[in-house]
């Protein structure tokens, strides 16, 4: 017996088409792109926030637990810094790791003006951002945030993301964060459309996707949370052919997950080998990778007037880049099935290169990452994209990397790449980013800019 | 600079079409469907396997570890039975759980005869199968298997699954197993096509998908491993419309994953509360759910001549079923976003009902599962599918459930279902089963038979 019901098309390019129109719209209905950096600087000045390094003893409500040495907040909320023991095939290591099991919301509100989708972006201060205030999603909220563990004010616009009607949701997917620093962290990446009037607070601006893409050409302007949300949105199917079919790509990925035997177990921070703790930091004895430090944040303009917190600081700037080639006229990037100890499931697709080069500088310290020199030594006319971005400023201090998309050739990046690497099209990467845990957060930053970079830059 | 290269179509219905043709082929080129049960019985007799319950003290090489009480093999391989502590919102419990982190291969070899795909199915004995020998994939191999931790013989046909060429792979996806009994277990579900000659050992037969679907109408004939592999294969897009678009379905699923706060941590088996250990079993004090027992297996016909092992035995038979409705002429089943403590990520889509009813029999013991009575009390003409299947006989003893697909109506299963439930089409379920961790193993059994059941049975 068939019941009458309102059915909808299972798939449709409708959302992708509207996003593509917004991407093609270079100027918005409300704010000129050129004004945005100044507007961010204004908020920086008005906030007058000062971030200072402090000793762990200066942390308020945070302390090392007497039994485990884990760094935790007295409320038991926010996050903890614990130890992680990773066994991976032959290799094995221990490290500090941020544990924050709750799922946060990274949400961007969308609304049509003059027939074009605009996105409500926020001038948001995060203590770890090198320039403090960056263009951020409408909402960045951990559960602690919106249940007010801060004791702070309400999160603006949050109500739009808590129970949207299905037809308002343009994207909603759980995505992983940095597997080298976070233990199995995932956030909900959402874009929700409103049609009614939305009051626009001073720290928010409606921008088209085209404007945001333009701003993504500037160093340290668009924050990580905004980048990952935009990368999660559906793109128009750009190409119907590729070096691998979609199912062959999935089969390759399954093989990569299956061949890596990774066991990661949490352990007491105080017991991790190869790391040392002093008054100001937990750091590796050999000085590589990152350290755990503490900061105080003073000023206005956030949920609370001032606070202290532990934060992770990479020792040097990173390089994150995709090698890019045209095969038979179709763009492909070289993805790497990368193991990170904090991934929920072993490997995710990462950029061709993702490293801090100085970690590999001492002769014989460790093998230099594949393809790093191919990207760094490329002639300028082959660089389609080169911009410095920092990672999530709420947890990472000055975690800057140069994000690159570089056109390469058969000599440096062969059609048949080495094991663990696979050529994928931008469309395939976007398709996989519509599901959880295929595309890592660094690759998502590059995915967010990929189409625009390939259209705009380089000489093909 | 564009490099010449051989590109392929990203997507194509080619594999799905060939599988659909095989499903429509009621008899195969080599073996009549009607002969298969007799052939399985023959192997049962020839194997002459005897499975006996033994006390834990009778286990060979297996023992409770002195420190944790975990049940483990002296080699450190195969699997362990440990404790699990699950905290889920308000509820909290402890239980034994099988820990087997290695990824196994469940592989079916495919080959065309007379233009139709046939699948090489095995008459395989597993000690936990109620009738010992069932129709199984070509290969069921844990890493311990194929690295010979058994000290046994080689796994036949395994070589076809270790490094297939991309164009030979019809499906290859990591799928979860029982989250109530396994800790984060996943297996690789593969179908690999060969074109050369393949020697067919006596315990193997080439069958069409149509033959296997016919056999899936019989109780305890097709084993779980075969069912999940078949469910993972791509089906033809059956419908283009649904109550929810694919992206709305994903957004709903993301919301379900995000709203359940589940924390599961392994703990020593000896410390789990609410369970008791005697000479023969580890069981719940209230007798519900399952127990851990030990068996000896004697006879021939497997990798090794005889062995002992611990095994999980549910206390009673289960009921697993989908409520099914036509909306505007399009079939939908009611999926449940189900939390299981052993899932790698919180929830997966399960059938409408998945339970052992006797666990809920004692008045007031616990709330009766939603929709259970709607399925059990349906009039016979509404039952599209009703067959008893058992779960993986290598780990579960007599774990039988009645698998049901039952046509329901607005009164019992409303168009707007309660939170945690969602109407999905068979095509949507198949689409999600092409990725990891969306569709649980019980739902995959029903997915394997869904199209055939809806075409063949019930009165619509």
From TrEMBL, chains A, B:
<protein>
    <submittedName>
        <fullName>NDP-hexose 2,3-dehydratase</fullName>
    </submittedName>
</protein>
<dbReference type="InterPro" id="IPR038153">
    <property type="entry name" value="EvaA-like_sf"/>
</dbReference>
<feature type="domain" description="dTDP-4-dehydro-6-deoxy-alpha-D-glucopyranose 2,3-dehydratase">
    <location>
        <begin position="34"/>
        <end position="232"/>
    </location>
</feature>
<dbReference type="Pfam" id="PF03559">
    <property type="entry name" value="Hexose_dehydrat"/>
</dbReference>
<feature type="domain" description="dTDP-4-dehydro-6-deoxy-alpha-D-glucopyranose 2,3-dehydratase">
    <location>
        <begin position="248"/>
        <end position="450"/>
    </location>
</feature>
<dbReference type="GO" id="GO:0016829">
    <property type="term" value="F:lyase activity"/>
</dbReference>
<dbReference type="InterPro" id="IPR005212">
    <property type="entry name" value="EvaA-like"/>
</dbReference>
């Amino acid at each position: 017996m068939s019941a009458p019901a309102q059915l909808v098309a299972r798939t449709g390019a409708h959302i992708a088409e509207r996003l593509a129109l917004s991407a093609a719209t270079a100027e918005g209905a409300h704010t000129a792109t050129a004004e945005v950096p100044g507007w961010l600087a204004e908020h920086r000045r008005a906030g007058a926030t000062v971030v200072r390094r402090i000793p762990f003893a200066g942390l308020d409500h945070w302390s090392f637990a007497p039994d485990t040495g884990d760094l935790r907040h007295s409320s038991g909320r926010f996050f903890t810094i614990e130890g992680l023991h990773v066994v991976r095939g032959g290799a094995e290591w221990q490290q500090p790791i941020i544990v924050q099991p709750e799922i946060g919301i990274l949400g961007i509100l969308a609304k049509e003006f003059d027939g074009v989708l605009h996105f409500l972006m926020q001038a948001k201060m995060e203590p770890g951002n090198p320039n403090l205030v960056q263009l951020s999603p409408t909402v960045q909220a951990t559960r602690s945030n919106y249940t007010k563990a801060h004791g702070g004010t309400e999160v603006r616009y949050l109500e739009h993301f808590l129970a949207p009607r299905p037809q308002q949701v343009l994207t909603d997917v759980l995505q992983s964060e940095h597997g080298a620093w976070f233990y199995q962290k995932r956030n909900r990446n959402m874009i929700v459309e409103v049609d009614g009037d939305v009051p626009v607070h001073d720290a928010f601006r409606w921008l088209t996707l085209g404007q945001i893409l333009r701003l993504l050409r500037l160093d340290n302007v668009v924050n990580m949370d905004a980048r990952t949300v935009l990368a999660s949105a559906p793109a128009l199917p750009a190409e119907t052919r590729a070096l691998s079919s979609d199912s062959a790509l999935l089969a390759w990925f399954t093989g990569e997950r299956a061949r890596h035997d990774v066991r990661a177990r949490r352990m007491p921070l105080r017991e991790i080998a190869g790391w040392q703790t002093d008054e100001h930091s937990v750091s590796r004895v050999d000085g590589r990778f990152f350290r755990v430090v503490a900061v105080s944040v003073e000023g206005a303009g956030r949920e609370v007037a001032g606070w202290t917190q532990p934060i992770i600081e990479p020792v040097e700037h990173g390089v994150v880049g995709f090698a890019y080639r045209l095969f038979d006229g179709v763009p492909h990037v070289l993805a790497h099935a990368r193991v990170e100890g904090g991934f929920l499931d072993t490997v995710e697709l990462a950029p061709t290169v993702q490293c801090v080069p100085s970690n590999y500088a001492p002769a014989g310290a460790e093998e230099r990452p594949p393809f790093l020199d191919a990207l760094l030594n490329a002639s300028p006319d082959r660089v389609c994209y080169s911009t410095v971005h920092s990672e999530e400023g709420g947890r990472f201090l000055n975690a800057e990397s140069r994000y690159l998309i570089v056109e390469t050739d058969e000599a440096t990046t062969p059609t048949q790449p080495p094991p663990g690497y696979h050529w994928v099209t931008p469309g395939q990467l976007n398709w996989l980013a519509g599901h959880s845990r295929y595309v890592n957060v660094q690759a998502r930053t590059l995915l967010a800019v990929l189409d625009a970079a390939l259209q705009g830059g380089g000489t093909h």
